[in-house]
Amino acid sequence: MKPREFIICFVLIIVLIINGCSSSLRYQEETELHITANYDTLLFNSLKNSKALFSATGEASFYANKFNGRKTANGEKFSNNDLTAAHIDFPFNTIVRVTNLSNQKFVIVRINDRTPSRNKRLIDLSRRAASALGMISNGVINVQVDVLKWGE
User: Fold this and answer.
1) Are 62 and 79 in contact (CB under 8 A)?
2) pTM of the predicted model as reported, rounded to 2 decimal places
3) For residue 63, what is the domain's CATH number?
């Protein structure tokens, strides 16, 4: 082997060794919980006829579009397409049934955020949940909130 070929092979081997020792980017699984349509159906079917552990009535509103993609109080990324809600003090992951008192439509949502302390509303809903209640055009409605399963 000629000296020039030897040097090229030597440099190539060194580059490969150094490259092999470097850290590589690895796939990181997202930790955010996104409720899928399948999960929504299972949750709805298993809890729709549950007796309330606690009930309250008050006003509900829904998140403005500017909050889509922001982090919630429990660290998840908020999505207007999830069936989630904010409450001032219910534990995270509490499952509640929200009923529109004017048309009796209801939706089951999971608490993953907090309402502002100055907010007089009982609950803030994702756009998908608000749509299920038929409240998009009204903005604020009177609701009954029934706790079906307490979070931890």
Assistant:
1) no
2) 0.69
3) 2.40.40.10
